[in-house]
Amino acid sequence: MPDLHEIIADVAGYLLATGRQLVTAESCTGGWIAKACTDRPGSSQWFRGGAVVYTDELKMALLGVQPRTLAGHGAVSEATVRAMACGALDRLGGDVAVAVSGIAGPDGGTLDKPVGTVWFAWAARAPGGGTEVRAAVHLLAGNREQVRRQAVVAALRGVLGS
Length: 162
Fold this sequence. Notes:
single chain, Maf protein, five-stranded mixed sheet
């Protein structure tokens, strides 16, 4: 498993070099991405903060995810993480956002969304206005801790492509 400190060093360097700040919107990772960022001294130069939105109610209240998005697609979906990432930019500021929602287990999985299904979205303010958003789904293996750790790594690696 990759070393989080090395990945954070890369993320910090990238954000500092581009003059941008990161915000997070986390569900299944429970703030682990933000913790990994703030473990690095000087992170206040490139990390603005984040929201842990484990429930649908908080996804709506704090990030502006629409009830119809959650009802139509579920919390673990492309539509929801895209809305979470855009909501994080709109409500928390920053220039780049990462959002994560998944099923870490050991239960909660379904045939369509088995344990280990994790959706990611990265949103970035585009030059000249607007927001660019991309999303990806990963099916991660392992126990709850392993799924969550892999999700943190994938989320941070995705920031490097923002």
